[in-house]
Amino acid sequence: MLWATAGVVALGFLIALEIAARRYGVPGPITNQVQEVIVAPKSGFLLYAGMALTMVVLTRRQRFIALGVALGIDAVFLVVRWAVGADLKDGHPFGNGALWVILGCAVIAVTRRTGPERVLLLKGVGLALLLVAGRKTGDTWLLITSKTRPMVLDPYLATADHALGNPSWLVGRIVTATGPVGARTLDFVYAQLAVAAVVIALYQLRNVAAERRFPRHHLVRTFLVIGLLGPGIYMIFPVVGPIFAYGPGAYGTGGVHWAVANLWPDLPPPISAAPHEMPYDGITPRNCMPSLHTAWATAIFIHSRRGPRVLRYAGTFWLIATLAATLGFGYHYGVDLVAGVVFTVTIEGALRSLERGWDRPGIHLVTYGVVVFTALLLSYRYLPMEMAERPWLFGPLLILSMASVIYGYVRTTSQWETKAVPARQPEPHHELVSG
Q1: Which are the contacts of 312, defined by CB distance < 8 A and separation ≥ 6?
Q2: Beta-carbon neighbour count of residue 398 at 10 Å?
Q3: In the chain, what is the straight-line distance between the N-terminal and C-terminal CA atoms, in Å?
């Protein structure tokens, strides 16, 4: 019933976004996903990552068959596109085969499986489609933010960011100094965040085929909830980012006519007057507050802690590289990252509390995280001048508030894990009894 309810809610949400997108004359998430059955997909890597999630419920032989079918279909599509001279500038030359396999598994589940086996296979298909649909709904959400929020609050964040020393400007200069090699590496990490998440998720779901059930909590759940709740904050606190509000636009294109001044990353904006809302174009997404890339990378880091050493190192690298990319490319202010970490830790705490049953420590953790996140947003909006004029006070307060939520999460989850491990019983020993 829970999975059925979630499916109905997700479908209704997708239909609502489809209708909203149509009002602005563009296809919505459902149309975009259906088109990728035939047209070149926007992200072939994501489709294969989704297929990998489906394959966790299959046997080893079935996985080889599924992978072979996907590659074969992609090979046929590639030959046909080459023969007709299709333009692939807006998509990848592969990925359709993976989507065909995912949909084929759904058909097999409905027509050839019964009982728990059908439910298990449908759960695998559902995870894959939710991951892929999350990308499509995100694109539609970003369009909605640009059309419905003509005014942005970048001057408030740029002013508040003085409390942290304007890290976007500093890291932007460092990334520029590294040249194309550093920029391309960070760009790859930034763009393939979902694929990295799937790698961690596959490790967590590695025993599904043998145990014939999913674990109660895993990374995909956290990823989807972050993607569901984050855009709602975008609507409340619309921000375009330093490279748009104070620079020439991403990669030197667009935004220059709407920017306050062309300052990023060479010169931080001066503290001269009280910040105010500013108009911006109807194209650039208002997707900065909080930084969802930081939120997702933090989730990857948290879930990688229980993996082997190589996954722990990979999770750490992906978090550091993502933070460097979000700042170094001018996509986010430092205060966005602080909010993104608090946002994720609170969501992760809520999901783990839901998994084990709500208790007092879990309620306290989530309540505290919500209070801190709300306080951050309110301070960015109503106290930016005070933050900029007193960085010696507000800078440490921002870091301490974030650290306090992290500490609360670590302490609470450690208590849960300690209680979950049964106490060792003393081994019986025999004594000689003299008669």
Answers
A1: 304, 305
A2: 24
A3: 66
Provide Rg for the chain, Cα atoms.
24
Two structure tokens written together for 49: 């990552």
What is the distance, to the nearest Å, from the Cα of residue 121 to the centroid of all Cα atoms in its chain? 25
Long-range contacts of 44-47 (CB under 8 A, 24+ apart): 44/91, 44/92, 44/93, 44/94, 44/95, 44/98, 45/92, 45/95, 45/192, 45/195, 46/95, 46/131, 46/132, 46/135, 46/194, 46/195, 47/95, 47/96, 47/98, 47/99, 47/102, 47/132
DSSP structure string for 387-408:
HHH-HHHHHHHHHHHHHHHHHH
Distance of CA 122 to the CA centre of its chain: 23
Asked if 16 contacts 123 with a C-beta cutoff of 8 angstroms, the reply is no
* Separation CA 244–CA 241 (nearest Å): 6
Beta bridge partners of 278: 152
Which pLDDT band holds residue 3 (cuts at 50, 70, 90)? low
215 Cβ contact list (under 8 Å, min separation 6): 204, 205, 208
Alpha-carbon distance of 194 to 333, in angstroms, equals 22
Report yes or no: 342 and 373 within 8 Å, Cβ to Cβ: yes
| pLDDT tens for each residue of 413-433 | 988 877 665 545 555 555 555
pTM higher than 0.85, yes or no?
yes
